[in-house]
Amino acid sequence: MAADGLFPLPAPPRRQLAPGAVHVPGWLDPPRQRQLAAACRDWALGPVPARAAVLPGGARMSVRTVCLGWHWQPYRYSRTADDAGGGRVAELPDWLADLGRAALADAWQDHAAARDYRPDTALINFYQGSARMGMHQDKDERSDQPVVSFSIGDSCLFRFGNPDTRNRPYTDVELGSGDVFVFGGPSRFCYHGVPKTFPGTAPDDSGHQAGRINITLRRTGLAD
Ligand code: MD3
Ligand code: FE
């Protein structure tokens, strides 16, 4: 293969839904999916256990979440998990922040933006059965750096909306195992949600047969 190593790799297939919102199907190869899924199941065990967060009105979310770097609960971040045993959250490992930077570089084809990306937290969501996530904005962060999302296991219906209302207009997209989605710039504060997952659709080689995992990397912009 004459071209091996001599030319840059082609950009991965990707689709821009709106300015700053880019979907890259299958960005994580199966070995990487398996490594991430195993790491997520490990983090779910502690030092802070994954838990279904309780909303201020008293309703419990159907998704279970564990956090790295900073603990999120509706609707604030802290270093300790005050609604899940009080322990201090595990560090966000450099390799995971680096993976987010690499995904951002590929999705946006913007190496300067990727160099400047400094995520300091990861929220890991576990969906099983009929778990879903209603339309919401992520605005507890004090930074407008992008959110990088990784999906593993079952596929889902993802609904990407607009910055002004939780209703139409929105675009429905299926997210599958290994997909990356980046939300930045004018898309960073758009409403979005997961109306449903598709149980039993996880590829055998994804390493996760117990539903869907979603990892989001973010910058909180908070300091101790
Ligand atoms: C668009 N998670 O954790 S990831 C969340 O699949 C969350 O578990 C969903 O929404 C999930 O807050 C969706 C995609 C996503 C994440 C953050 C966003 C889309 C976003 C922030 C702004 C706009
Ligand atoms: Fe969100």
UniProtKB/TrEMBL annotation:
SUPFAM superfamilies for the chain: Clavaminate synthase-like (SSF51197)
Gene3D superfamilies in the cross-refs: Alpha-ketoglutarate-dependent dioxygenase AlkB-like
Keywords: Dioxygenase, Iron, Ligase, Metal-binding, Oxidoreductase
UniProt domain Fe2OG dioxygenase: residue ranges: 118-221
GO molecular function: dioxygenase activity; ligase activity
Cofactor(s) recorded in Swiss-Prot or TrEMBL: Fe(2+)
PROSITE patterns for the chain: FE2OG_OXY
Cited PANTHER family: ALKYLATED DNA REPAIR PROTEIN ALKB-RELATED, NUCLEIC ACID DIOXYGENASE ALKBH1
UniProt name for this protein: Alpha-ketoglutarate-dependent dioxygenase AlkB
